[in-house]
Specification:
- The protein is α/β, with parallel strands linked by helices.
- The protein has 2 domains: 128 residues, Leucine Dehydrogenase, chain A, domain 1 (Rossmann fold, 3-Layer(aba) Sandwich); 173 residues, NAD(P)-binding Rossmann-like Domain (Rossmann fold, 3-Layer(aba) Sandwich).
- It is built from 12 helices and 15 strands.
- A 7-stranded mixed β-sheet has the order 12-11-10-9-13-14-15, sandwiched between helices. Strands 1, 2, 3, 4, 5 and 6 form a 6-stranded mixed β-sheet that branches. Strands 7-8 form a two-stranded antiparallel ribbon.
């Protein structure tokens, strides 16, 4: 059920193209701080309610990060098919919602959409700023000697931010990320880049799970072999090194110090919540567990970084592209803003013994309700 309150949603748009059977939804939740920003997901079962929940999460995510964007999200019902049909769906949706872009809504990648789909989107709207996450070779001249170019999410901004959220959370507890053991559930774009950047920081990844299974390696994984597996887009159970296979249930019992759910909504649930051994959870996925389960785990002494803080690297990258920043500046901004958010929220949580999500939501709501007092970029 879509809940209406003092924050929104401002627009709920249902789109249908009878010629090709394209059906989609656009929810612009709140534009107090700027145009609604959020990706387009293409799945068989996406609903307006799901899109609303994600749009509201984007409202909070942008507010906490200090990004001058509001909350928005889009969904297109997509059961799969050839690229030419997918392109027609994306461009039909883009044309139908063109009146809102980019003043009220700016699109971006999400489930089953990436740089290619964002290029299709802007080609249909004929507005370079109507979407972010575009290919890096898709550019527009702004001034003499300066052009804006796409920053694809395939550059790893979200995983980079998740890694820095983990590093900062550990530091707030007075520890060092080097040598800390980590388990990652989900090994797509976010999970693989989280693995890459945490490994570079000196953390030891001991368990990884994806849609095909899970493996455990107490001494950590061979970087070259994992790299080849990622490059070949193979399942984690195809890892060529020495490792122990785990059942889906046993993954959650791995005694890692840090757990990173980077897969699907509600992946931590009533069936596995009591098996978790980690002391820190970094929520890389959107809504990886219900708020009631977060509260249960927090009362057990498990510290967590909420999703709309931990995975904000993607939208910070989107803002960087929107402004015409280069990759180096984008990564610097992701590190700066996520580090600050995690320090603020976890610092207050530890001091007040209060659930981190409640603190983060208070900060976000304050910024949206009183924008003149908010510090934005």
């Amino acid at each position: 059920m879509i809940q209406r309150d003092e924050f929104g949603p401002e627009y709920i748009i249902n789109v249908y193209d009878p010629q090709i059977g394209m059906e989609g939804f656009l929810v612009i939740d709140n534009t107090t701080l700027g145009p609604g920003k959020g990706g387009i997901r293409m799945t068989p079962n996406v609903t307006a309610e799901e899109v609303f929940r994600l749009a509201r999460a984007m409202t909070w995510k942008n507010a906490v990060a200090g990004i001058p964007f509001g909350g928005g999200k889009a969904g297109i019902i997509w059961s799969g098919g050839p690229d030419d049909l997918k392109k027609r769906f994306v461009q039909s949706f883009a044309k139908a919602t063109n009146v809102f872009t980019p003043k009220k809504y700016i699109a971006g990648p999400d489930v089953n959409t990436g740089a290619k789909e964002m290029q299709w989107f802007v080609e249909a709207t004929k507005k370079w700023n109507s979407a972010t996450g575009k290919p890096e070779n898709l550019c527009v001249k702004v001034l003499k000697g300066w052009e804006k170019c796409g920053i694809p999410h395939e550059a790893g901004s979200t995983g980079f931010g998740v890694a820095h959220a983990a590093k900062t959370a550990v530091e707030v507890l007075g520890r060092d990320i080097k040598g800390m053991t980590v388990a990652i559930h989900g090994f797509g774009n976010v999970g693989t880049f989280t693995y890459k950047f945490l490994t570079e920081m000196g953390a030891k990844i001991i368990a990884i799970a994806d849609h095909g299974g899970a493996i455990f390696c107490e001494d950590g994984f061979d970087e070259d072999k994992i790299g080849k597996l990622i490059k070949a887009n193979q399942r984690i159970v195809d890892y060529a090194g020495k490792a122990k296979r785990l059942s889906g249930d046993d993954f959650w019992a791995v005694p890692a110090e840090i757990l990173i759910p980077a897969s699907v909504t509600d992946v931590i649930n009533d069936n596995n919540k009591n098996r978790i051994n980690a002391g820190i959870i970094i929520e890389a996925a959107n809504i990886p567990m219900r708020e009631s389960i977060e509260e249960e785990l927090f009362k057990k002494g498990i510290l967590f970084v909420p999703d709309f803080i931990a995975n904000a690297g993607g939208v910070i990258s989107s803002y960087s592209e929107y402004k015409g920043y280069h990759l180096k500046k984008m990564f610097s901004l992701v590190e700066e803003k996520i580090t600050k958010s995690v320090r603020t929220v976890l610092g207050q949580s530890l001091k007040q013994n209060e659930n981190p999500r409640k603190i983060a939501l208070r900060i976000a709501k304050e910024k949206v309700l009183k924008p003149s007092k908010s510090k934005l970029l």
